[in-house]
């Protein structure tokens, strides 16, 4: 079984930055897409970004393009989400997810999920 564990969340002022990490339990996960979702208070989970372990395919939600960057380190079985120029509306729990099917992942029904890490943007 592949397990995912997020870290790196915290409290930051508007315009600040955070770097989230998602560590996978096995390097066999390199065959799958990985991504991030966010869930703001009182809202449904929303797709943020996705990347493959084996190529450069990257997809972002329109509202985070130019501010968030997804990347991966296959040797460490880890995917990252760099959050720059954060806004209060970015406040949410951020979840890591993985699946062999990009469509399933983007729809929020990927097979693997982490427990989430809280990002709070406030002055």
* DSSP, total strands: 11
Please trace the helix and strand order, writing H or E for each element: EEEEEEEEEHEE
Strand content: over 45%
Based on secondary structure, the structural category is mainly beta
Written overview of the protein:
The protein is mainly beta and 123 residues long. Helix content is 4%, strand content 47%. It has 1 helix and 11 strands. The strands form 2 sheets. Strands 2, 4, 5, 6, 9, 10 and 11 form a 7-stranded mixed sheet that branches. The protein is globular and about 40 Å long. The mean pLDDT is 92.
Question: What keyword list fits this structure?
Answer:
1 helix; 123 residues; four-stranded antiparallel sheet; seven-stranded mixed sheet; globular; mainly beta
Quick overview of this protein structure:
By secondary structure, the protein is mainly beta.
Give the helix/strand layout.
Layout: E1 4-7, E2 10-12, E3 18-24, E4 33-39, E5 46-52, E6 58-60, E7 68-73, E8 78-83, E9 92-99, H1 102-106, E10 112-113, E11 117-121
